Amino acid sequence: PGCKTFAAPHTHSPACLPSMSDSCTIRTRKFMANPLLARRQMVIDVLHPGKANVSKNDLREKVAKMYNVADAGTVFLFGFKTQFGGGKSTGFCLIYNDMASAKKFEPKHRLLRDSSEKNDRLSRKQRKERKNRAKKTRGKEKAKLLKGQ
Fold this sequence. Notes:
Blueprint: E1 25-34, E2 39-47, H1 56-66, E3 75-82, E4 88-96, H2 99-105, H3 108-114, H4 124-135, H5 140-147
Antiparallel strand pairs: 1-2, 2-4, 3-4
Helix pairs in contact: 4-5
């Protein structure tokens, strides 16, 4: 009897709702130019009311446009956490001066995650199975098995 649940009335009029193309607001803070690593780095706050999240590709395009970056591939976003209740996410952004410095300083896993390059390495289980199969063979068959790596 003491507990009552109710829904708050919907206060947004259709005119003030953001359109699908402009459904999030990006704010940057703790901006720092880092010339030693040839990059600019910052914390990004993304306000996305009514949406669970915003894709990193959309954010990358918006940040590239905000900071006049020619190649959106030099923008790296990571570490995003969504606030409890949704509507706001916070993460980290690195904007490299060029792709060469990005490849020099970024960790390999982030380069693979953000680029269209395919990881040509086999899974751990496949490598172990191939190694153990190679143990059982000798000579030309073994060389043939190991050459396939």
